Amino acid sequence: MTLQRPPVNSLNLDLLKEMSKSLDEIAKNKSKAMILTSASPKVFSAGLDIMEMYKPDLKRVEEFWTTLQEVWFKLFGSNFITAAAINGHAPAGGCLLAMSCEYRVMTGGNFSIGLNETALGIVAPNWFMDTMTNTIPVREAEYALTTARMFNVEEALKVGLIDEVATDKDDAIAKCKGFIGKFDRIPALARSITKLKMRQAAIKRLQDGRREDLNEFLQFVQNPKIQKSLEMYIQSLKKKA
Ligand SMILES: CCCCC/C=C\CCCC/C=C/C(=O)SCCNC(=O)CCNC(=O)[C@H](O)C(C)(C)COP(=O)(O)OP(=O)(O)OC[C@H]1O[C@@H](n2cnc3c(N)ncnc32)[C@H](O)[C@@H]1OP(=O)(O)O
User: Fold this and answer.
1) Could you tell me the CATH number of the domain that includes residue 205?
2) Most exposed of 35, 52, 59, 79 (fewest Cβ within 10 Å)?
3) How far away, in angstroms, is 218 Cα from ligand 1 center?
């Protein structure tokens, strides 16, 4: 699955809906595996589209958040094998997508990956945190989340946020295929049940608290102080360009 929403693959409602549909198709056509990557030469995904949260239409922003939850359920909780070929920056929601896969290969270069929410004055939702603690040790996750740490490729490899480094996108995809090939001699049902048991607690936590999570998000986007911060953040991104 190749993310292709220039310039930075920010996750807006339309892209999330497309992803959700594609994940359904992959599950339905009984694909063995999926590799998630990006068509951009330098950004895997810039995370959630800030414009979806800035001065939002309430009905749309509710659909936006529930679709994001759905994409996470379908990706994190998939039966099929998942790997991410991370060929560029992966902040926040971009990092969430990568961590929701079972294996991550990142191309070398001046790219970064991490959950930077606290730097924006935002608290990452529990399921973002659960996805991180499913990937790297709890102590490292707490440190990274509280300090909004963006890891460079070497740091990400050292902490286990990524599994391998690749020279370029083709190499990243080849390495993801290498990971997928490891399952050729492992019974598929045993593999998928084991994966889902490992992920069950995080999945159940969001299933049980899904409405509450949505309400927290809706309160968050309607808070005037948050709106002011988002406005300043958007300006800072635009000034940079
Ligand atoms: C107690 C419970 C509380 C509950 C609270 C509930 C929920 C809140 C949690 C929400 C969780 C949030 C998750 C997120 O994902 S927020 C998004 C975070 N993402 C970022 O901070 C990344 C920002 N972007 C960048 O750092 C860079 O763009 C880059 C990805 C490193 C790529 O750099 P570069 O190639 O140099 O591109 P530009 O910076 O020049 O950007 C090109 C244009 O794209 C626009 N842009 C960039 N990122 C975004 C984005 N995330 N959303 C929308 N638009 C974005 C940028 O403004 C440029 O636009 P322009 O061409 O019009 O100037």
Assistant:
1) 3.90.226.10
2) 59
3) 19
**Ligand 1, atom 40: closest residue by C-alpha:** 241
Domain that holds residue 179: 2-240
Q: State the total domains in the chain.
A: 1
Reported confidence tier of residue 120, pLDDT bands at 50, 70, 90: confident
Residue type, 25: E
Q: Which amino acid is at 17?
A: K
Cα separation, 131 vs 199, in Å, equals 9
Evaluate whether 86 touches 106 at the Cβ level (below 8 Å). Answer: yes
CA distance 62 to 60: 5
pLDDT tens column, 40-96: 999 999 999 999 999 999 999 999 999 999 999 999 999 999 999 999 999 999 999
Give the helix/strand (H/E) hosting 36: strand 33-38
Q: Is the CB of 93 under 6 A from ligand 1?
A: yes
Ligand 1 atom with the shortest distance to the CA of 93? 15
Model's pTM, two decimal places?
A: 0.97
Tokens 């759905």 belong to: 70
Residue 47 CB–ligand 1 contact under 6 Å: yes
* CA-nearest residue, atom 62 of ligand 1: 238
DSSP state of 160: T
For 55-69, how does the pLDDT look when each residue is reduced to its tens digit (9 = 90+)? 999 999 999 999 999
Residue 119 CB–ligand 1 contact under 6 Å: no
Q: What residue's CA is closest to ligand 1, atom 27?
A: 46
